[in-house]
Amino acid sequence: MQGLRRFRRWCGARRRGQFALTVGMVTMLTGTCGAVLVAPNWAMPKIRADQLASAQQVAADDPRLAAVRGIMEPFGPLTAVRVATGDGQESLVVGHSGQRVEMDVLAGELAPATASVNELWGTGWAQSALVVVASNASEFAALLRSGSLLSREVAAASVADPFTHGTQPTGQRVVFSPDAGRRLSPDGLRTVLRHELTHIATRGDTVDGAPQWMLEGFAEYAAHRAQNHHFADIAPTLSTRLRTGAAPTDLPADSAFTGPDAAAAYEAAWSACAFVAETYDEPRLVELYRGLAASKQVAATEDALLREVLGSSRADFTTAWRTWLETKTP
Ligand SMILES: [Zn+2]
Fold first, then answer.
1. Where does CATH 3.30.2010.30 sit in the chain?
2. Cα separation, 92 vs 63, whole angstroms
3. Within 13 Å, how many C-alpha atoms sit on residue 18's CB side?
């Protein structure tokens, strides 16, 4: 399983009220990883008509259904929505009738999400996705090929067949948890979808063992870009630490993304990528991603790539990022 994401409540989103931020990771996680992010029940804001899919078709004969039909049909009849997502490609949202509301939200978000990923990453990927909404914990685990039930804090995750770096992976799908529609607002669903879609788009260029701060930071950056989300709303934990003089001293290590302080790790990773995009530009952020994602995490490699792409040593990059963070302190 790859690209696993968890619920997290957003606090302080003054204009949008309660909201949720999810974080994720590319490595396999078990159900024991839910210590970080706890989202209490809250009312899902009313969904606007323009957030629903406009052109829906039942695509019962779509061959992509074959990949999930055997897993899902024991849990009830399938509903599928086909969405045009660019360059003649079609994405598919699959679920059961009980998940129809969130399915429609996701279907309505798929085309703009794909366009946003294309704008950042380019069009050298499938530009389509199979998005599945699980109806219960067993189905969620089965769709993610997990041998055990996942933490209820997992909002969504993505999987792919084994693949060779540099080739387009097959069997990719994004799977939303049975609680996603209840616990995430439409804004939250959009953010999760864009995060996971970024993992789908970039997976062929990403090796196991690449630095998590870039993999997850980039997906989070892609999820929030051009949405007018405020720094403190995207990174509440980091904001609090900046206010109290507890700014991160270094880029988060891979181990930080699975421990009790994972939320801070994701926020720091997002901020490092936002720093690159804002201080340099998005093409150089993408270039940095391509370089770092193609290699195992080795400090010397990171240093060489940062020098090559940004003209800055790793130490100088970290210092500049921390200085930038201070400018974001409320
Ligand atoms: Zn992720």
1. 2-205
2. 11
3. 15
For residue 162, report the distance from its CA to the centre of ligand 1, in Å: 18
Instruction: Give CATH for domain 2-205.
Output: 3.30.2010.30
What pLDDT shows up at residue 63?
A: 75
- Distance (angstroms) between ligand 1 centre and the Cα of 194 equals 10
pLDDT digits (tens, 9 = 90+) for 119-157: 999 999 999 999 999 999 999 999 998 888 888 888 999
pLDDT along the chain (330 residues), means of 10: 52 26 30 23 38 45 82 93 86 94 95 96 93 96 90 87 82 93 93 95 91 96 94 94 93 89 93 98 98 83 94 96 90
Ligand 1 mean position, distance from CA 2 (Å): 8
Sign of CA dihedral 44, 49, 53, 56: positive
CA of 23 to the centre of ligand 1 (A): 6
Ligand 1 centre to CA of 287 (Å) is: 19
Residue 133 CA to ligand 1 centre (angstroms)? 17
Could you tell me the distance, in angstroms and rounded to a whole number, from the CA of residue 61 to the centre of ligand 1? 31
Question: How far apart are alpha carbons 128 and 172 in whole angstroms?
Answer: 10
Burial 112-145 (b: 16+ CB within 10 A, else e): ebbebbbebbeeebbbbbbbbbbbebebbbbbbe
What's the 314 CA to ligand 1 centre distance in angstroms? 23
Give 210's contacts (C-beta < 8 A, 6+ positions apart): 26, 292, 293, 294, 295, 296, 297
Angle subtended by helix axes 299-310 and 282-293, to nearest 10: 150
